[in-house]
Amino acid sequence: MNNNWKTSVMAGMIGAALLIAAGCSGSADGNGAAAGDGKEALITLWGLSDFLKGDESPGQQMVKEFNEKYKGKIRVEARFMPAAEYNTAIQAAISSGDMPDIYQTPSSSDIRAFVANGHVLPFDGLVSDGWKNRFFPGSFVEGVNVIDGKTYSWPLTGPQLGSILYYNKDVLKQAGLDPEKPPKTWDELRDMSKTITAKGKGDVYGVVFGGGESGGSSGVVNFVNALAAGVSPEVAGGFNYKSGQYAYDSKATLDSFDFLLKLKQDGSILPSSFTLKGAEAGILFGQGKAAFLIDGRARMWIVKRDTPEASFGLAQVPTPDGSKPTYYYVPVNPTGYMISSKTKYPKEVGIFLENGFTAPMFYERYLKSGVALTPIDSINNNKALYPYPEFNTFMQLHKDLLRVRPDYAVRNAQTAKVIVELGSLDQPKVKPGFNDILQSVLSGAQKDAAGSLKAYNDKLNKGLEEAVTKVKAAGGSVSLNDFKFPNWDPKKDYTADDYKALK
């Protein structure tokens, strides 16, 4: 790998600073000792993915079945940790020199930084040549999870819809509203929330969300972005891929935030929402303390798990005029599970990855758990695996609302160097962030959302420009135009032909 990239990574990647501070090393000598010496190979797996949580989770069940099949030869120990605990544990493991054999990229980090610093092994040669064919086309992209022709991870899931309107049917019915007719417009959401709150008499409210989350995908941010996608999907999420500029101060975002403020002024939001975590908000929704919750794909199965008695439905997030919102995704992203470069058992790790972690038996369990769609189309379309009736709507919403957006890494793999400089396109080093600003205005500490978001935008655009300049100075072939896709129609999938048209 280019030495200039390694130097820039070590200087600029704050999100991966914990990896730079100490060499990633396992307890092994890295010679690839095999289980064929009569000893059972012990493989450790750490992650923050919810599919590993609990003995009955699809991940842990997959590990159990794999261990039975390979008893005496390979044994896998999988450990789930919530994000904050996981990030701390990984940092401690790096410092102690005792890393797990397989581990997930920590929050605000990137596969590309791990590769640049020599912390991970490529999958090539450890899995079969046909292994990639089981996944969606486009699941492996140079500059994302393939670096210099070597593969370092795989897509953990299929497309993930990050914004769904969950509605509690019992709450609607108790308020005299039709439990089978969720709101389609902003006005309907506001009016129904007022009615529910009035009849709830301080016990039941219209809306709940996890406003106390501090991450970039907090309840406040998710709520605003979900609404903005129904106005101008190209700016929802903060970066406009048509213009190649940050757009946190867009009219769509400001109008969506203003709508949230109106719900607050109406008294229609469960008061504790502003300090709740996402999990707490989901439980209160399931318990019937609020009618509406805007959240991502994971909330469906979590509500089923935590409040199984809840009667709820799923629908598209309301838009100003009731039209269909559009959300976007890319088939592959630079996060996932990686192989430690110091594992004692690379061969056995490859066997586990191919015949356990990415095998159809795991993804069938995964789909049946209701956690998310899988990266294997044939499994997603097998209705016999759907865990409950709501999953049919869940699948249909994914098909109706999700579109493939352009990916700068596909256009130019060297943009990876820019992203490593920034930490991520969201630029987590820039404070206060989007969530901080919205929470500050919601609390009344600030009044000028537009001005604060404009200043934030300016910082981010300057940061992107400086990162591009730095990479170019180090010999990288990149340009700000690599992040600009003027021919993108957010209502359609961005295709290979669209990339060709740019040239």
From TrEMBL:
Coiled-coil segments on the chain, per record: none
Signal peptide boundaries: 1-21
Pfam family, one: SBP_bac_1
Keywords annotated in UniProt: Signal
InterPro entries assigned: Bact_solute-bd_prot1, SBP
Name the UniProt record assigns to this protein: Extracellular solute-binding protein
Taxonomic path: Bacteria, Bacillati, Bacillota, Bacilli, Bacillales
